[in-house]
Structures are given as structure tokens and as C-alpha cells.
Give the backbone structure.
Amino acid sequence: MATQPLTCSNPDCSLASDGKCVEGFEVEECPHAGRISIDDVPATEEPETQVALPEPTIALSLGEPLDRDEASTLQRRRVSRSIGLIGPNDSGKTSLVAGVYDLLQEGPVSGASFAGSSTLIGFEKVCHLARAVSRRTVPHTERTSRGADATFFHLDVHQSENGLTSLFIGDRSGEDYLAAIDQISQVDQFFEIRRADCITLLVNGEHLADPGLRHEVRAATPQMIDALIEARAIRKGCHLAIVLTKKDSVLASPHAERVQRDFDGIVASINASHAACFGEVKPFVIAASPRDCEQVVRGEGVGDLLLFWLQACPPAPGAREDLRPVFERMIDLLTDVGDGK
Amino acid sequence: MSGEVHVSIVGLPSSGKTTLLAALWHMVREPGSSTALSFDGLSNGNYEHLNQLAKRWRSGKIQQRTQVSGARNVTMRLKDASGRQVEVSFPDLPGEEFARMWERRELDKSMVGTLAAPAIVLLINGDTIRMPAWVVERMALAKKLGVVPAAIEAAEWSADLAPTQVKVVDLLQMLMSGDLNIGSRRLSLLISAWDKVEGEQLTPAGLLESKLPLLDQYLRSGRDPWTWHVWGLSAQGGVYEDPEKEESFDETERLRELERPSDRIKVVDGDAVTTDITKPLEWLIG
């Protein structure tokens, strides 16, 4: 058996060469002898392995709904219409967005053809739960998250008479819009409403058919418009579509006629108070994503609404400056110096 | 007059990109074949890949899936009826690269040059088009038929579940934006596996309108500057066998019995039918 050569961890010691301890210890008694110095440890050689580096990639557009800056950039490219969808939660805003897109999946809608979109992933997500591929037995739509900034779905649409128009459909939680009734200052954050060419107010037909919810719908719906007008959040000459949603639920209820009367009443009430603030006010009844299609066709009424969205809304001279809402907030009277009155 | 033309063949997985290359390479070299573009000689390139594809195609065997990593560039020297020479280069890109563009929203940098070609062949497998379908209509049909749908777990959203036409529209939009945007381009849209869909008695344009209406609208709108034309293409003529599964079909045997392998090919343009697989290419390179 070979003996190990003497070594010492003290770098000043020559024990290895002459067998003597620099500190005068017997070799057996030296606390450093036999220890391996760091210099004695041979440097390990890194094995040369070929690590395949991933191919550098470039990021493509995410295809998700756009934030306000992204939408603004795209809006400068061609004629555009910005749509502000407002309504309480569960009134059918996301279903309407999905419904417009899904109708285009089957061909032109009321003469309007699909020409492109930078938010296809976003559209696909909101359509999923109403598609057969989701394996659901009842169509469903996910709610938009409360408190999140509004985003925009983008659709380029082609019409033979008007050419290309870009649509930007604002999406924000219904709860946020409802909150504006309680606190009008909330409206300040609704940038999608300020830039809208067409405000689209959704009235939940299913709720209007429900005796327990009916009166709340009748009361709260005009109040949302009141809040926007009072906060001066609506663009001059902008159109207003008032849309009764979930026509299938309305027709399936025993109160279909009453729902229609109530809806007509809501439209009349808004017209009476605020018609002068808008370029045009028009009612619609739709079934964007019905639960059954025994009495309605999927997407019923959506084509007419799409055409209304695509209409130009020329600025209505003096439409807003000259006509005040029928009420005034005291705070506005104290602070408003905007029109010099 | 001669020129060099770069053509990119794009399409989702299993759309027939490699089969097109195989049939094209066979046909331009088939003795006695009469095609709009014909073989003009070999250059110093490596033809092993193309020859292997053509050999497999002739024998009635399905093509192996194109390797996912990297593109193989193949080049053909062709000439048109007037003697004009063109060198056409095609990268044989795996369909997964295009699926990845839709699903993961990214692209290998190395593909940018390839996909920036001024001429694009887009293949869509006519037999595997996934059309959108809706719960409400599915349920109405089930009710009509007296079928009670089985309770199964709902499927979470994922990008690969999107309809074929949505994926293809997005692919074309991507080719017209960002680093890939080179302005106007020509697009040959080939609906492959035409033998599987011709029973529907539709022209290729009719099939595009009825089975891929979103894509049809997008192209017709002219928002993006595509100069496009649509063909139906059956590059095999019928079913081929998978040697790994030891398949054997009478239909494949009938195809092998044809006097000329190129007789298997069917290229449909409106109501006109030809075996000349170079026609879409001739149109593409103008």
C-alpha cells in the first residue's frame, strides 16, 4: 500500500519537501500537517457540453383587447367608430361583443363584412363558452373584471358603400358603471365613454321580465345616462343606442308585452330628458347569445345595431353647449365655468 | 430574361405543404409532362430532400411530418412557356411553426426572412376545416333528434380550439404587419385534399365562401394588400398509406395503377380541372 506524501495546509511550511514542520512540531502533533491546502485541490475541468441555445424569437401582437393607447394608435389609421357599451353587470355587454364577432364568422352581417381584427384572441376567449367546443350545454359568457381599466375590442369592417371602418368596442365591468350612479366622480375614469361615437346602453330583458328586478331596472337604467350627462362625459353629437337584451328570455316569460312596454318607457324617459344631448337615439331588441333558439335566431337584432354603430355621427353644432340637462348639480353650478354662462 | 423568386409555403400542421413540394418536384421532372412551368436543369444545390419527398409520393406513402426544428430550403430551376427562367426557392417549414404563431404569439427570428417572401402559397386542408359551432344550436338539434347530451366536463379555452378560419386570418394579418410587412404580396390559396371535398359540388371560391367565410371576407375586403387567387388541389388524388402503420388500401393501389403518377394530381380553378400543379405557381410568380 502506497503511503500518502506529507502535506501541510500552511503555505509557509516546507514539510512536503524536507519533512520538517516550520512551527517546530513533531509531524504527528502538527495541527496543519496532512491537511490539504486549497492550492492542492486540482481545478476541475468543466466538461465541454454543447448546450443548444433556443432560437431567438420575436414577439407577435398578443391579439388581446387593446388598452386606450393601443386603440388610439389604431384609430388614426382609418375612419373609425368608438362604441361605449354601458349597462349593469349581467346586462349582456360581453355577449354582445361576442355575438357581433360570431355572426361575422358565418358571413357578412347586414352588408358589413369582416376585414380584419387585432384582437382575435380576445374575441375567441369571450366567445368560447357559447361555442360547442366548450362542451357546455348552456351558453355562457364570462364577466368583465370589476375595477379594471376599460379595454377595446377591434374590428375592421367593410361596406360596399362606405369602404373600411374600424370599430373599437369598449369593455368595462358593469359594476363600475353602476357605481357611477352612486358617485358621479367615478365617471371621470370612463375614457371609453368620452371618446365614444355611439353610446350603447344595455337593458337586461331577463331582469325586466322578473317582477323582483323589474322596477330596479326601470329606475337604474336612465340613472346611468343621467350620471354621464351630468358629468359631461358624453361627446357632442354622439349617438345613443338603447338595447333590450336577452330577447329569448323576454319571449319565454309570461310578461313579454309588459317588458316591451317597460322598455319603451325607459326609451321615452331618456328621450324626454336627454334627446338634445345626442345626435340620434334609437332602440333595439337583440338576442346576441340566446340560451335557446326556439323563438329567436342567434344574433337576432345584432346586425341592425352594427349598422347603427357604423353610422357617422357628425358633430351636432351646439348640441350640448346650448342645452343643459334638466337638472343641475349644485357643485356644478358653483364650479362650472366651462361655457361662460 | 431570368429571375429569382422566393416563395413561402405556409399553412397549419397537416395542410399538405410537403406533399405539394413532392408532387411539384415529381411533375416538373416527369418525362413527357406538359406544365406551365417546366424543369430547367439542376443547379449545384442538394436535391436529396426533394428527391426523397418525390420518391415517397410516387410510391403512395404519406410524407413524414416535417421536422419541427428549422426549415429546409429547397430550390427549383424552372422556366415558363416563353423560356423565361425562374429559380423558385421554397422553405419546407413545419406547420407547427404557424400554429405557434397563433397560439404562443411568437416567431423564430430565423423565419422572418423566409416569411417576408413576396409570393405566398397558403395551404388549407379542405378535409379538416374546423368550423365554429354554437352550444345553442347544437342543443336545439339534439332536442329535435331526441338526444340527451351526455354530461361531460367543460373544456377550458385554449388558442388551439379556435376555428381554422380565425387562425388563418390571423396568420395572414401577421404576414402583413410588423417585421413581416413588406407591402403588397401575391397569395395562392390552395384548398388541399380536394378529392375529399369535391363531392360537395362547390368551386374552390364557393368552398372558401361557405366553409371559411371569415377568411373570404377578409381577403375580399382588401384591407391588407393581397393579390390572391384560390384553387382546389388534390396533390395525391386519394388516400396514401402510412408505412409505419403498415397500411394497405385498394384506393392507393388504384392510384399506383395509373400510367403516370402525375395523373393523380387534380388542380381546380373555378370549373376548370387540370393535372398541372405548376399553374398556381405560374400565377404566383406572374
Q: What stands out?
A: Confidence is low (pLDDT under 50) at residues 318-341 of chain A. Chain A has one domain: 68-316.
